[in-house]
Structure formats: C-alpha cells, structure tokens
Amino acid sequence: MKYSEICHFSHPHHNLKFEYSEAPFKCDGCKEAGIGSRYRCSGGACNFDLHTHCAIPPPSIIHPFYTKCSFQFLCRPPGPVARYCNACQKDVSGFVYHCTSCGFDLHPCCAKLPMQLDDGEIKLYLYKKVSAPCHRCGRKGRSWSYRSSCNKYNLHVACVREMLVDSWHEIYYGSSRSELETRVPSLRPTLHTHNHKKSKGKATKCCEVAGLALQFVISAVLGDPTTLIVALVGTLMSK
C-alpha cells in the first residue's frame, strides 16, 4: 500500500511525500541507490529520500528461498561485525532484514525482488543459484540470479549491483548530493565479447534481448520494477 504522505521514524522533523524520480537517488534508509518511486522530505533542503520498501517496511517477512527463516526489519545492521546481503553480496550499511537464528541478511529492495519479471516479450525468473555462467562476469553461483525462461540469459544480482556502483560511484561514496550522473550501465561490450562467434544478426538480437533483460533487473534492484521505470532505465542506458 502506498500513501501520499507519511511520517517516518528515521526523519521525524518533516513528513515524507510520495513521488517519482527520473534521476537516481541514494536511499537514506538502506544507503543503496534507487530510481522511480520514493518518499522524499517535504520540509525543504533536507535531501532525504527513502525507497518505498524502506519507507513502509513490514516488521517481519518470510522469503521463499529461506523458508525456515523469519527476517526482522532492523534500522541498522546487528552487532559489531560487518554484514553483507545474502542476495547481492554487497555490504549492509543501513536498513536491513535480519534472521537471528540463521544470521542471514537482506537489503529491503533485495528482499522484495520479484520472483518473476515479465513484460510480454521476455520472462526472467529469480533463482538462489544457477548452474549457467553470468553474462556479466562469466562465473557461476555467485549470488541470486535472474535467468530467462529460454535459459540463454543469466545475470547475477551481485553483478548488477557492482555495475551500478561503478557507474554511480558518487551516489554511493560521494559527499555531494547535487545533480548526479544519470547514465545507467550497459552490458553491450560484455555481450559482444560473449557473442563474437555468432553471426552479426544473431549477435545483435542476443544483445537486444539481453539488454532488455538488464533493464528489468536494474529496475528491480533499484526498487521499482514497473514498466514505466524499465522504459526510463532503457532511455538512460542509451545515453
């Protein structure tokens, strides 16, 4: 459920208003990048943003990949030891879902990754592990992966996170909250390397389909896998 305006414990001085952002932003809850739907401070110059998943989180969740676990929402990672997300392998720096009994951790957006992405042209299914290599890194079983229904395209969630960190370094590590680079990473160089033995027509088609798959996965990882945001990501990828 989405509300037009909320009061959030992490930013009690001002209300947060629901809006769409066509530029990437850093979520002040989980400390990860986002795009599309968000809750933003209505109080002026705060520059405070939250993913919708971070703004209105269920206090506990059960994930299909960990049926014996009960994940509790925490506003900070538990304990003194550095934590990492079991979905994308990236460090946990803010809001997190944590299973006390198993010690597993999930970023809020990773916990809410759709089990299926489908735009009518391509279907992608989320797997805990796949035996086929990732189109980005060429390795197997590194993290959760999205795999196409035709079994030709595989993308590690971890690799998509790394691509975003590389392209949006200022969002993750910069001190400035000014206008940010809006280019979205592309798989084109990697895909052409993978498909250099195919005919030109087949290689081009492969790149087009895999590029569409990447648009969906990036949108999901950023917290808003809607058709509108997928189209926006596609536009940013072409810059």
Helix-strand blueprint:
Layout: E1 5-8, E2 11-26, E3 33-41, E4 49-51, H1 52-55, E5 60-63, E6 66-74, E7 96-98, E8 105-106, H2 108-111, E9 116-118, E10 123-127, E11 145-148, E12 154-156, H3 157-167, H4 169-173, H5 188-194, H6 200-221, H7 227-237
Antiparallel strand pairs: 1-2, 2-3, 3-4, 5-6, 6-7, 7-8, 9-10, 10-11, 11-12
Helix pairs in contact: 3-6, 6-7
Average residue-wise pLDDT: 80
Tell me the β content: 25-35%
> Number of helical segments?
7
Largest sheet, in brief, is: 4 strands, antiparallel
Number of strands: 12
Query: How far is the first residue's CA from the last residue's CA?
Result: 34 Å
Q: What is the N-to-C order of secondary-structure elements (H for helix, E for strand)?
A: EEEEHEEEEHEEEEHHHHH
**Structural class, judged by helices and strands?**
alpha+beta
Low-confidence stretches: 175-182, 186-207
The Cα radius of gyration reads: 18 Å
User: Biggest sheet, strands in spatial order?
Assistant: 1-2-3-4
Helix content: 25-40%
The coarse overall form would be globular
Describe this structure in words.
With 239 residues, the protein is α+β, with helices and mostly antiparallel strands. It has 7 helices and 12 strands. The chain has helices at 52-55, 108-111, 157-167, 169-173, 188-194, 200-221, 227-237, and strands at 5-8, 11-26, 33-41, 49-51, 60-63, 66-74, 96-98, 105-106, 116-118, 123-127, 145-148, 154-156. Strands 1-2-3-4 form a 4-stranded antiparallel sheet. Strand 9 (116-118) and strand 10 form a beta hairpin. Helix 3 packs across helix 6 (200-221). It starts with a strand and ends with a helix.
